[in-house]
Here is the input.
Amino acid sequence: MSYNRQPVAEDPMQIWGAVGVLLILLLFVIWLFLPEVVYASCLILHTLWGLVDWGHFITMQHHDTTCLP
Here is the structure.
């Protein structure tokens, strides 16, 4: 008596998980070994931080209303 195994249908979306992981690993290796990419990413993060950092503006405007010396 032999058992015939039915072929299992693979999920077509499963391949995109592997592709995504490989793409992230590739980008990480590029970031590690190309100083231009590191410089550009640091410049972008620095610029974005400057755009959202309103702390100095708020403390300048409300300095007279705080209890701190």
